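step=encode ok
step=design start
structure_in=
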């Protein structure tokens, strides 16, 4: 019999989802009492959830000034994405060497889960599976102490992507973008894996193409 989720975990997951999807806007103040009333739980439960969200880098708690959702700054987002790319690409060769049948089965299951999430139009479910996919590859080659840093980078890059004006990509295409990464792993090609991950992250935001003008240079 499945164990019932604890209230603090439910509140944490609900707030995390809303922040990542920008349903709670960057810079928005949060109060324990207000959230407790809205979510019908105790202030202590909300406090625990906010502390975990602070560890994720999603909220900032400032003593008497209270708690606010962390802001999204384009320059900071670029630095965070650069850090994420360095973390994920530097271990590519080691990841290929550590790739096993168990790892392959885990990644294939996550990829299938992404396709299912896309089909039911579950953007947040797809984000969670995307993060688990990248973390599973990272875990093959990197020390555990770095994984939490990567997770914070991934959370921020997903928030920034969804916030980016004009970002356009269907959920199905978002899921499909992971296939070339899996192909590089299966080919045991560390250099190609690093290149595929770098391209994947460089194109994380997709903007509509600018309309062409007659007479302009190609």
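sequence_out=
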């Amino acid at each position: 019999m499945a164990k019932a989720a604890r209230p603090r975990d439910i509140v944490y997951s609900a707030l995390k989802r809303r922040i990542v999807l920008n349903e709670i806007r960057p810079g928005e103040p949060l109060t324990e009492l207000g959230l407790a009333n809205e979510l019908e739980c105790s202030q202590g439960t909300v406090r625990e959830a906010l502390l975990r969200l602070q560890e994720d880098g999603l909220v900032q708690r400032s003593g008497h000034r209270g708690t606010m959702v962390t802001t999204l700054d384009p320059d900071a987002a670029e630095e965070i994405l650069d850090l994420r790319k360095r973390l994920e690409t530097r271990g590519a060769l080691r990841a290929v060497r550590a790739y096993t049948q168990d790892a392959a089965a885990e990644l294939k299951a996550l990829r299938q889960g992404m396709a299912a999430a896309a089909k039911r139009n579950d953007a947040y479910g797809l984000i969670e599976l995307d993060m688990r996919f990248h973390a599973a590859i990272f875990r093959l080659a990197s020390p555990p102490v770095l994984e939490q840093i990567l997770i914070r980078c991934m959370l921020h890059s997903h928030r920034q992507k969804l916030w980016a004006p004009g970002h356009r990509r269907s959920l199905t295409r978002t899921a499909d973008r992971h296939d070339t990464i899996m192909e590089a792993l299966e080919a045991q090609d560390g250099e190609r894996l690093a290149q595929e991950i770098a391209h994947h992250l460089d194109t994380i935001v997709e903007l509509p193409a600018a309309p062409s003008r007659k007479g302009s240079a190609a």
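step=design ok
step=annotate ok -> The longest strand covers residues 59-61.
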